[in-house]
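Consider the tokenized backbone below.
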């Protein structure tokens, strides 16, 4: 009789735990706000690779890059920004129109790893006109909108297009691109220990940039991304890698249904990771092949034909995928959920603000940015 009662008790306990688990059922996507024009601007085109996240319940979007004069294939030059935009919510939870801070980032910057922490918004690495940087900075915004910058230990190597996440007072950054090419490096910094230095962890199984990194169930997940090879042609990955924080070993998990890079993602619910948009490479890969052919072409007419073909591809860019996927760390499987209802942004950061997903600005077509800030309200079953 005791055994029967014990079995019933265990079944009820498991069912109760399962009933309490939060699994995402759907996401309601909407436009939360727009980036306001910067000082001296009448129109805000948006930026790719902004510093973005939360500090003291204030949303910060800063820096980033765009092409203000012309598309790069028409001679346009990338312009790196240092403007800071501040957003707050009203008492109903609606995002109020953003304001342009009188302060700026210490230097123009884009494509860093932005990570919201309990002590502020940390951004690591990135690039500007001088190339990749190893600088790591914590940004904090107070109730008046005043921003303080705290310099943290520099990365062991200058990196751009790297990915990061925060867990139990520790900052993790992975992959990216150095002056020598794509990186397989994986580093951590204990933010709770004064004077702590970056620790070098086990290399990622592949060198990769433009990946998504999220931490869920005590493990680090690195998803998708790409690796530019010496011939100028990139491999785009559909891989899901898991780093066990206890065994300190990387393992390969269930892949995404297609290769994709530069998407956004974050941990949601109790056992899930959301992956949003991304570049499947349909145009990107063709352009890389054409670039390689242009470099090796010796005939001027052939070179011009290839160049015009490349421009036509880029001008007709269809935009990036709107698909959204959920990875369940318990089942180890991906599943599709409802897609974005607006253009899919890449090269930006997704994060939670009071439990709501925020995806600010980013690139929506080759060379084209958006000022739109997307919000995603999570519904759980």
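A designed sequence for it:
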């Amino acid at each position: 009789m005791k055994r029967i009662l014990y079995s019933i008790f265990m079944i009820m306990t498991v069912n109760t735990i399962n009933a309490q688990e939060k699994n995402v059922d759907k996401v309601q996507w909407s436009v939360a706000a727009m980036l306001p024009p910067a000082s001296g601007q009448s129109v805000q085109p948006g930026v790719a690779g902004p510093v973005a996240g939360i500090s003291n319940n204030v949303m910060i979007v800063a820096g980033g890059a765009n092409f203000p004069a012309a598309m790069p294939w028409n001679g346009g030059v990338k312009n790196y920004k240092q403007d800071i935009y501040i957003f707050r919510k009203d008492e109903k939870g609606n995002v109020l129109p953003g304001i342009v801070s009188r302060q700026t980032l210490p230097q123009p910057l884009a494509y860093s790893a932005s990570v919201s922490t309990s002590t502020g918004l940390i951004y690591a690495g990135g690039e500007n006109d001088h190339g990749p940087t190893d600088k790591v900075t914590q940004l904090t915004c107070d109730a008046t909108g005043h921003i303080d910058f705290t310099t943290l230990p520099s990365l062991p190597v200058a990196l751009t297009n790297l990915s990061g996440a925060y867990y139990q007072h520790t900052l993790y950054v992975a992959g990216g691109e150095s002056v020598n090419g794509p990186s397989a490096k994986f580093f951590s910094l204990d933010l709770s220990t004064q004077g702590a230095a970056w620790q070098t962890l086990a290399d990622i199984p592949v060198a990769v940039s433009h990946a998504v990194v999220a931490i869920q169930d005590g493990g680090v997940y690195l998803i998708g991304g790409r690796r530019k090879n010496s011939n100028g042609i990139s491999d785009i990955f559909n891989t899901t890698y898991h780093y066990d924080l206890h065994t300190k070993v990387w393992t390969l998990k269930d892949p995404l249904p297609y290769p994709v890079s530069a998407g956004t993602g974050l941990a949601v619910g109790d056992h899930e990771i959301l992956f949003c948009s991304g570049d499947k490479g349909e145009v990107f890969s063709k352009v890389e092949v054409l670039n390689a052919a242009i470099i090796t072409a010796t005939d001027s007419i052939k070179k011009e034909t290839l160049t015009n073909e490349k421009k036509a591809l880029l001008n007709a860019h269809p935009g990036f995928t709107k698909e959204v996927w959920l990875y369940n760390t318990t089942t180890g499987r991906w599943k599709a959920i409802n897609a974005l209802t607006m253009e899919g942004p890449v090269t930006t950061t997704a994060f939670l603000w009071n439990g709501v997903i925020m995806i600010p600005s980013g690139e929506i077509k080759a060379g084209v940015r958006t000022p739109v800030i997307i919000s995603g309200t999570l519904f759980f079953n």
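The radius of gyration is 22 Å.
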